[in-house]
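User: Structure with thiamine diphosphate, tokens only please.
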Amino acid sequence: MARGSVSIVVERCKACGFCVEFCPSKVLALSDAFNSKGYHPPHAVNPDKCSGCDLCGMYCPDFAIHGYRPGKPEAADAAEKEKEAE
Amino acid sequence: MARGSVSIVVERCKACGFCVEFCPSKVLALSDAFNSKGYHPPHAVNPDKCSGCDLCGMYCPDFAIHGYRPGKPEAADAAEKEKEAE
Amino acid sequence: MTHADPVGVLTGAHFLDGDHAACEGAICAGARFSAGYPITPSTEVVERFSHRAPKIGATFIQMEDELAASIAILGAVWGGVKAFTVTSGPGFSLMMEHIGYAVMTETPCVFIDVQRGGPSTGLPTLPAQADMMQVKWGSHGDYEIIALCPNSPQECFDLTIKAFNLSEKYRVPVFVMMDEVVGHMTEKVVIPRAEEIEIEPRHFTTQDKSSFQLYAPVGEEQTPEMAKAGDGYKVHVTGLTHDERGYPNMTPAVQERMVKRLVTKIRDNAEKICITEQNEVEGADVVVVSYGITSRVAQRAVEMARAKGLKVGTVRLITAWPFPDHVIRAIAPKVKGFVVAELNLGQMVREVERSVAGKCRVAHVGHAGGTVHKPEEILKAIEEVAR
Amino acid sequence: MTHADPVGVLTGAHFLDGDHAACEGAICAGARFSAGYPITPSTEVVERFSHRAPKIGATFIQMEDELAASIAILGAVWGGVKAFTVTSGPGFSLMMEHIGYAVMTETPCVFIDVQRGGPSTGLPTLPAQADMMQVKWGSHGDYEIIALCPNSPQECFDLTIKAFNLSEKYRVPVFVMMDEVVGHMTEKVVIPRAEEIEIEPRHFTTQDKSSFQLYAPVGEEQTPEMAKAGDGYKVHVTGLTHDERGYPNMTPAVQERMVKRLVTKIRDNAEKICITEQNEVEGADVVVVSYGITSRVAQRAVEMARAKGLKVGTVRLITAWPFPDHVIRAIAPKVKGFVVAELNLGQMVREVERSVAGKCRVAHVGHAGGTVHKPEEILKAIEEVAR
Amino acid sequence: MQLTELRIAGFGGQGVIMCASVIGRAASIVENGYATMTQNFGPEARGGACSAQLVLSPTPVLYPYVNKADLMVLMSQEAYVKFAQDIKPGGTLIVEQDLVRVQGLDIPDVKVFAIPATRIAEELGKKMVLNVVMTGFFGAISQLISRESLRKAVLDSVPAAFAELNGKAYDAGYEYGLKHMQSGALDLGEEDPVTITE
Amino acid sequence: MQLTELRIAGFGGQGVIMCASVIGRAASIVENGYATMTQNFGPEARGGACSAQLVLSPTPVLYPYVNKADLMVLMSQEAYVKFAQDIKPGGTLIVEQDLVRVQGLDIPDVKVFAIPATRIAEELGKKMVLNVVMTGFFGAISQLISRESLRKAVLDSVPAAFAELNGKAYDAGYEYGLKHMQSGALDLGEEDPVTITE
Amino acid sequence: MSTPICIQKAPENPVESFLRTDRMPHIWCPGCGIGTTVNCFTRALIDSKTDLNKLSIVSGIGCTGRVAGYVNLDSFHTTHGRAIPFATGLKLASPEMTVVVYSGDGDLFAIGGNHLIHAARRNVDLKVICVNNLTYAMTGGQTGPATPLDVITATAPYGTYDPAFNLPYLVEAAGAVYVARWTTFHVKQLAKSMQEMFKKKGFCFIEVVSPCPTLYQRRNKMGDALDTMKFYKEVSKVKHGAPTNEVGLSKSGEIIVGKFVDRERPDFETMMKAHLEASLGEKYIPAEAPTCS
Amino acid sequence: MSTPICIQKAPENPVESFLRTDRMPHIWCPGCGIGTTVNCFTRALIDSKTDLNKLSIVSGIGCTGRVAGYVNLDSFHTTHGRAIPFATGLKLASPEMTVVVYSGDGDLFAIGGNHLIHAARRNVDLKVICVNNLTYAMTGGQTGPATPLDVITATAPYGTYDPAFNLPYLVEAAGAVYVARWTTFHVKQLAKSMQEMFKKKGFCFIEVVSPCPTLYQRRNKMGDALDTMKFYKEVSKVKHGAPTNEVGLSKSGEIIVGKFVDRERPDFETMMKAHLEASLGEKYIPAEAPTCS
Ligand SMILES: Cc1ncc(C[n+]2csc(CCOP(=O)(O)OP(=O)(O)O)c2C)c(N)n1
Ligand SMILES: Cc1ncc(C[n+]2csc(CCOP(=O)(O)OP(=O)(O)O)c2C)c(N)n1
Ligand code: SF4
Ligand code: SF4
Ligand code: SF4
Ligand code: SF4
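Assistant:
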């Protein structure tokens, strides 16, 4: 199974293709469909290869995609809470 | 005889002493008298040592003194005129 | 007066917006130098000039800011060319010191201000007419300037030429006060043949070099002749209070003489300088005063009012400064009132009120900008005043 | 209202010039930050502040120019302190953009302008009162500000405190419009004890962080509460047209709402804000209007006129902006006329004319600056109007 | 040409203003009538709302704004939502078929025409010419200006290097329009042609 | 103290303003009366014309300017030329003896007193204190303000490090004044004390 | 679409909590690099554990200047060119604050150039992020002081002929203590540089070379944003410590990236305090976190 | 006086014909260095045989700025800080003119700093003479951007704590082609540098360290003007070609003087003409000496 996953907010995407190009695992491709602004957002064509490295998230100029490792965020949340308690 | 001479417009002098200090031949000294603004202008105490180098003229911030070599300016004038004729 | 240099005159009909038309006006007027700094909605003027300049023997330079642009043109003028700069509100606010310097040194030049919504960064792409008082009062000290308000691309062309002509005649900075709508509105603009375009040349002196005084007034314009750098007149130009030779002379007497002349050369000639467009003023009950794009909106309101049987005249301010006091003063006693419509919350209306001096009503139809009035708003004011 | 922080309050009698007194006023008002750039005849204000600052927990920074100085104080205000800058004509002309920004962002702050002869570099060491229209109109777009005119070193002290108080109350830049005479005139200045000095504190919000709106008006001042950086409110401050949250929202509707409030918060409260000093106005035939140093010169003329049996009153404009229309309007029908004396060629007189609306005569005694009027000049005008 | 009021709208980057400008130029310069174009745009260089108003008239235009439009060209859903209700009864609406879903329009007798201008432009090799495709389509549908005048205005407005492409785009739009006119205006009950919103 | 109008003038660098300021401070702060000082100066940091006007009064001062002065202190020829004719008949003129040639003064009953303040200051080791010498001289001649009040105002106006020097300068001027008063005012016919002009 | 992507269960994009999401979508064009820099900025903030309540961001005017409006921080969108003096006032008035200046090359180096060099000279503790898209984008792509030679702009229709500033060199000469350059391709390195900068006291400067596909690349036939990113990847060369006078940019040449300057010099406030303490001793009362009664 | 000096027969002071003698005496203080620099300037003009009819001088505001008012040349006393952009306009409008900018350190580097670096970047053909008296003199001796650390000024009563610009370094980094520094003690060298500068095309810059005895030296107990000149003599070290980043000034340390930079780089107009000619060919009409109908 994939170590990671991507989350995409298609309506924000403007189809620059950065995520597709710079995903080290070649997980993504632009789809044929339009979003409401007329752009072709990406979709995961190789979802099982995703490492959750979030490079796509760092590149995306429209905050439309990010990668994550399921389980990790919860930990982060916990850390957040700890900090707040200090 | 001195090769050069100094000319002083005492009313312009503000007694900074540059000319006195930097005259390479120590021709000048500040006088005791006041000019109308209350400054002590220089006078030539060793006039015969003056080389006419015009260093005093280059230093004087008040355009109050300059050195010259008698005869030289005429030549300069002539050069000036020549230039104009070109 | 002479005629335009045919180089650069694009005789014919064009579909141009006001910004582009103003650029062509400047070129026809003889401008051969512009320094600019981009700002919406004015940038198209200098963008066009940057295209056109190398083909007509002109120079365009984009400076590092508006401070630089507004004084580079003054340097260029003293170098002998006609020059202008272009900006909008925020940039205009940065030019204030140099308006004063241009006035003080009697440097003929033209500023184009394409007004957008303010204050501050405001509405960069949307219209206002709210720099109208600023253009008159934004620099420190007492002074007078001339400001013109086109209401169509054609007038952006025509009045830019006029601006250059007036600036040469009175050695004063002249301002073309456009608004974003006029700047970005596209219409047919007809450019005449060069020989049909009247041009005020720079009045270079031919006086004797030893006795010429750079600031000695001449004629009823009370305006001195010019010399440019390199002509051998050894001019001295300063923003300090100066005498007729241009020498600094910081005494109340010289201040009085100099500043008085700077203002009276405009005030005394105001009636000659002022242009208004009057329509059906005779016999009117209400006169609508407006300028720029608002005059075209107001015109629709006026037509609506006339359709309802009201007697409405119009005065369009083509010259906003000097303000045509005399025009308003003459009308005031004969009408019920004025309606002043403008894209601001009360600027030129103050001048109308002052000129009216209580002789009739003055109603203001203000607007914070961002778009134009609805004709109905103006109509409502007309109806109220007519009542 | 609260009282001055005793730190830095030099209670007692001092022999100070107006510049120095204004600095003490700022300190008493709570100013703990000033950014400046030297310019005659205002520099003494910041020079003194640079001496005083490190001993009262304040910061002075000399910036690279007036553009920087005039926005550094705004940054400091959002950092939580009271702040001011000081300048004179040429520097003031460079601050125009930031007046608009301060108005737009409702940043309370004080500008001191010590007026010298203009336009341009003009008369650096000599007086004028010719930035009076500039302070109101020098930035692009529509806005309102408050401007005060002291006529003595004591008032330079008092009105600087007042300026800070008003700026906090209305979140608006307030201007102390000195003239070179008042700035450099030395007299006894009495500084009260800290607990006798009334201070308007900054109105920091205590509202809920999640629902607080930085630009939601409160109370009859129509003025929002403030938050400072670091308070956790995550403020957004912009010079763009913005909604109550402070978010850019470039629509005519928001423009109308926002700009209207910016001007009405001052216009609606004008009668509360305006201070004038009236003397023997009741029953007067002629009323002399003046401000700053001119009011003291005019007073001599008034005494001369009274000695000749003329009935002369005076109105001194302590607040120049908002202009006290209501005061002039109330007097106009009862007098033969106003005489307006000022060190310029016609600035505040236009406001008098406008307010008078033809109800009586208005005579202007202008002066290009460099020195004050001769009382006789003002007397002559009084006699003419009284005739 | 009688007085005609048009609005053309979409988002930045679609060439809305150029489309309006070409029509205005054709009417006023090529055909020697009068045209006044005004525009509205936001701070965005791309993707922001963008609209132009165009008044065509046989006499000089005074009031430059359009209240109710005889004809509208809308190229984005946002533009549709904002402007469509301001079409005159009996007026004409032209839309980009893939970007506008025509719905809830209850103005009597409006004729609606749609063209997949973006796709046609993409097929021609340059998405950017979608506005010229639109212009052609507009020319055919409106019949306000002669096919040739409008074509000339297009070519006068583009750099020589792009003349061919733009000519093709114009023709493609025009032809599509002619075909479409024959098949008649859209039935407003039609299927949603666009948009994925997850 | 009755209403007294003074003018003090010279050139920049002589400490004209400070001289006036000390007198004003003595009158208003030390002696609790009223004083208004105004000043005029040019762009020069040194050597330019510089003058101060001072109105001393038992009640608040309104009009801050001096038309005709009861007393003038003039420290340069330029100042003399510019201002001397504005002394009130019967008034007092105090001059720097080496820098001002009193000539052509035809105002009735003016009393003239001169002091070589610059030389005295130079002798004290610092030309800069010439204004304090002047102040002392003024104090003695005018008798407007008590010797001690004026001295206090001097010391309040200078940095502590220079208190001694300034105190000495003040006293030197004052003493010179006392002596001079006894010997009476200058005879205007006197020899030109200054200036070389080649 | 072929693959179902589970949005409900996905954790939030880390950038999300830094955004004023009610203002999305932003105004930037497809492929504009500014958003990418914001990603790096937020990652750097997370990783450096910066106290977000004590962080302000100050922008000037421009496409980049809009960053201030999108981040959910105390944020100030000032006037064109004046972010730095505003930030200087803010910083001096609240010394405990980390103040970031986030703006464009035109804003910082054209109209704002003077403030930049003076703040660097004073070594005011500001963290400057300069998104260098080589043009004035907001106004439509005119020549800016960082525009390379021989490119077409809206005001240089026949190509630019005035040489550009070499930003790192100028900033170093003016006095900055930390100077780095990356491109939007270098997201990891950029985020790391930002982290370093947050930790460093004094005037710090990071240049991010960034695509403006709409106005710069398109006019110069340099392809779209993606082509530009590939171009950055291809021509960039990491040279930490490179002499800044050798890192000038050209239209299509090498882009030297890396950390160029990292030196120690007391910042303005430190200098001020130390100096005043030494001069005034007991009498010195330093400006504290403000109360503003 | 002891020696009769024959004034009648003496030739005129060479500076005299360059002066507006009807404006003498000037406003400068006793021992102020500005007048000395004017002597060097006029000697350089004479020796370089510059055409005085084609020479303009442009000043900003300040004590130094008053030079424009005293020289009998086409001369422009502009606004504070704006001499360079005025000169840029003047130069571009009349390319045959030699345009000298003569102003103070505050005028050129404080308020005018931005224009200076941009003109240097563009390499506009201007000859800039900066009289650096280390303070804002005209306004009474406040701190300027060239004021060294630890000196007393009117706005730094407890001593300065913000570091000064190293002017030659900054100007070189911005792009100047000729950079030199002298003090008013070095009258001959200064005059020679000026001569070189008149001959060089492009943005040239000479810093002249100069006494302001009235406001700088006096406040800092550095003696009078003469003491200052002796101090210059003592601490100056000629180092032609010294790396500019090593020539910063301090209150009482070494003053490195000499010609630091002299490099070739086409000036703005040359670049412009070449570029436009290449792009536009026949269609290019260069701006000529103006007629202005
Ligand atoms: C005083 C002033 N002048 C000009 C402008 C117009 N203006 C807005 S943004 C901008 C340029 C921005 O360029 P840059 O800083 O490089 O940012 P970018 O848009 O490229 O991100 C200009 C000139 C303005 N808003 N204010
Ligand atoms: C806009 C503006 N700000 C401030 C001033 C006041 N001012 C005049 S000269 C000057 C400083 C001059 O310093 P510098 O250039 O070093 O020349 P110097 O007098 O030392 O020769 C200042 C701040 C002014 N005239 N205009
Ligand atoms: S998280 Fe990494 S591996 Fe997954 S899609 Fe994004 S870039 Fe590719
Ligand atoms: S250098 Fe000039 S001013 Fe100085 S002492 Fe000599 S003559 Fe006088
Ligand atoms: S114009 Fe350029 S910089 Fe601005 S948002 Fe678009 S791509 Fe980005
Ligand atoms: S103040 Fe300084 S710079 Fe100015 S003239 Fe005097 S000595 Fe020279």
